[in-house]
Structures are given as structure tokens and as C-alpha cells.
Amino acid sequence: MLVEREGERVNHKRLWRVYREAGLCLKRKKRRHCVRIGLPRPALTGANQEWALDFAHDVLAAGRNIRVLSVVDTFTRECLALEVDTGFASRRVTRVLDETIVRRGCPQAIRCDNGPELTSRHFLAWALEWKIELRHIQPGKPTQNAHVESFHGRLREECLRVSWFTNLFDARRKVTDWKVEYNEQRPHSSLGYKTPAEFARVVLTQSYGKDVGSAHLENDCGVYHFPTAPATG
Questions:
Q1: Nearest CA to 82 among 156, 169, 172?
Q2: In this structure, are residues 73 and 48 in contact, taking their beta carbons and an 8 Å threshold?
Q3: Least enclosed by CB within 10 Å: which of 50, 66, 108, 163?
Q4: pTM summary value
Q5: Domains along the sequence of the chain with CATH
Q6: If you write DSSP's letter for every residue of 143-168 in order, what string do you get?
Q7: pLDDT value, residue 159
Q8: 148, 140, 143: which is closest to 36 by C-alpha?
Q9: pLDDT greater at residue 231 or residue 193
Q10: Is the pLDDT assigned to residue 176 strictly greater than 70?
């Protein structure tokens, strides 16, 4: 077409042969798409049976983008971690999860999307080491991780959109304050109008027959955390 626009008439077969001999025929690599199979969601009966993980985004006053890593217990609705940074590599994500596991105990499963930091070899090996089942949702279907999406809706409306973050440290302070308010002061209708922290204490007391304060376990390193929820099924 370009040759004809310049007024030249050339046989298309000859032009194609010269085009190939000159090494101008390059194949376009097809993008590999992640394939996930939708599975029915299991019924949850206790804390630490499934954590939901996802990222929210915002911007600082200087225009720099920030990401907010959210970790939510699907059953108790507690926000277990809410980390703010300019970026989250796979090792940064697992470091946050390690700190959360020390405080709360190990989950049986983690529900997340198919982002590169959540499908890397490091993240998969980390989950295998902890014996945690990874439940990746299907691409383009965020409703399969509805609990954390609902949580992000509140986070955006009540914190991110109404706050002016002067710098990264200011963003971390305000987001942490909102996390404490969400866990300790905000009742949920789905939890019998209890706060997530109150509901978690009731669940753990019923599951282990003791108060949360005495339900803490001590591991080999002398770190106290909540016990892992008993397996279902």
C-alpha cells in the first residue's frame, strides 16, 4: 500500500519475497492470558480460615502515586494489615504477611487477584512453605473477592478521598488511624452490629472455650499470636 501511494507498481508476491529476505517480517508475540477456573466459595465458620488481599491506589500532594495493601479476614471482617508505600514488590508483600501471621496466626487460605506480585515464584514458594492455599480469582472478576472490594469502598469514601496526604509518612499515619477506627469503633450489620474486633473476640472465645487474652499461644520465638482456626470439612 505504501509503495503504491508513492506511484510504484510492484507485484505483491515479489514485494513479499523481498520483504522476507530483508528480515522485515517479524512475528508478533501473542500475549499470554492467565486462565483461572471459577470455584464455589466455601462456607466459612471461623477466623483465619480465609484472608482477602488486594491493593488500593491514591496520590500524594506532590503528585506521587501510592499503593495501599489491605489484608482482611473474610469471616470476622477485621482489617489485619493496611500498609502504605510507593510500591509493593513480592517480597514486600510477604514481609507484611509474615508480620501479620506473627500477630494473628496463620490463615488456611488467601484470596487475591492475579497481579505480578501475587503470582511470582517467590510468593508461590512462600505460600507453599506456610502451607497456605492460594485462591486466585478469575481475571476481570473482582466480585470474586467481594469482601475486600467492599472494604476498599469504605476506605476510599471515608479516608482516601477526604484526606490530603502531604507525604508518605502523613499517609501512613492517617490510614493507620482510620484502620483503628474501622476495627474498634465501626459496627457491622452483618456481624450483629458488633465491631470487627468485638466479633473476633466472641468467635475466638466460642471456638477455644477461653478468653482471647488467654487464647494467645507462644511459639518457639516467644511471640504471642492468635491460634489458627480449626480446619473445616
A1: 172
A2: yes
A3: 163
A4: 0.75
A5: 51-225 (3.30.420.10)
A6: GGGHHHHHHHHHHIIIIITT---SSH
A7: 97
A8: 140
A9: 193
A10: yes
